[in-house]
Amino acid sequence: ALAIYRGVVMPDNIEGFDEAWAVLLFYQVGEFFQEYATGKSRRSISALMDIRPDYANLKRAGKIERAEPESVRTGDIIVVNPGEKVPLDGVIVRGASALDTKALTGESLPRDAGCGDEIVSGSVNLTSQLEVQVTKEFYDSTVSKILELVENASERKSKAENFITKFAKYYTPIVVGAAVLLAGIPGLITADWSTWIYRALSFLVVSCPCALVISIPLSFFAGIGAASRCGILVKGSNYLEKFNKADFFVFDKTGTLTRGNFAVAKISPADGIAEQEVLRLAAIAEQNSSHPIAKSVAARHGKAAESGYTLTNIAGKGVSASDGRDIILCGNAKLMEENGILYPEESGTGTVVYVAKNGKFIGSILIADEIKPESKEVIGALNGMGCRTVMLTGDNEAIAEKVANEI
């Protein structure tokens, strides 16, 4: 306003014109950085909370139609295909599959579920098509409550921000009122309106607490944005403000201290069998599976598996592969026991895959979650500062103890 006034109302006297434009530019730069930091924080939060379902496959009169999760009602039947997020809480009425629940529970191992089992929204269907009877509408579902919790928490402000907001609420109208009085009263008395309007505008510029009002919210947004780029979600500036007092840290395991994926940790072949042979047979049996364990076997094998085998999925136990001459069994201990195959029990911590061929035990593969290389450094640094660190996980105790000891 001051710049326009000096450039238009009093074009012959341009004193202060450059300074006024500099103030405007300062505000715009401040606004830009605040929007930039805020946008980065929001994008990071969205990426970290990528559990919201986009749609639901609603089954009506034998036909499947895509619908908004909010429009599905209790008692409706929905179809969840492999690779899709479960949109609503419910009970499985048809099919059996493995579910990836680590985004909700921290459980690194996929959970097997079949008819009659409960299924929660936000988990991912990995292997087979499921039909689910909805037990909770979207507003009451697990994923909706988690998203609501994060959104509400992220609106919490620090004490400093609350003070500045309250301060600006009263300070701004007082300063504007004083500027109006400064321009009006002397202007009426002296009739020198140009001088007193200029002085009133100058008073507004000088009185603006821009450094205080802009810097405090911007510093918190920048801090939250920088943390979120490192995968650390600070749910509000009030939490960031209290961080300097923190001396007790609780870490989730899966995806935080570990990578949240599977890798072959150990191969134990039977006498006279090579490790590569165990991997080759396991890769044949697991070649068409999208299960994380199957993918880890394929990754370790490192080449395309042999084709020409008929693959049969055995729910909750494993896979059978046959080419008319050989029968390969790949799965858990239940599969070995069901087929009368004697096997040495693997004592390592993790998920064990046993491999047999034509009724004879070939070997076992131990698959475990990988620990992030920086986890030891972070925990060591915190312990060195006198802080106490705790790992909290939905995984089983043996796996949790192994990870804790290694870190």
List the helices and strands and how they pair.
Layout: H1 2-9, H2 17-48, E1 56-60, E2 63-67, E3 77-80, E4 90-94, E5 97-100, H3 102-105, E6 111-113, E7 118-119, E8 124-125, E9 130-134, H4 142-153, H5 159-190, H6 193-207, H7 210-229, H8 237-241, E10 248-252, H9 253-257, E11 258-269, H10 275-286, H11 292-301, E12 310-314, E13 318-322, E14 327-331, H12 333-338, E15 351-357, E16 360-371, H13 375-384, E17 388-392, H14 397-406
Parallel strand pairs: 10-17
Antiparallel strand pairs: 1-2, 1-3, 3-9, 4-7, 4-9, 5-6, 5-8, 11-16, 12-13, 13-14, 14-15, 15-16
Helix pairs in contact: 1-2, 1-6, 2-7, 5-6, 5-7, 10-11
How would you describe this protein?
It is a single chain. By secondary structure, the chain is an alpha+beta fold. Helices cover 44% and strands 22% of the residues. The strands form four sheets. A six-stranded antiparallel sheet has the order 2-1-3-9-4-7, with no helix packed on it. The protein has a six-stranded antiparallel sheet with strand order 11-16-15-14-13-12. Strand 15 (351-357) and strand 16 (360-371) form a beta hairpin. The protein is elongated, with a radius of gyration of 32 Å. The chain starts with a helix and ends with a helix. The mean pLDDT is 80.
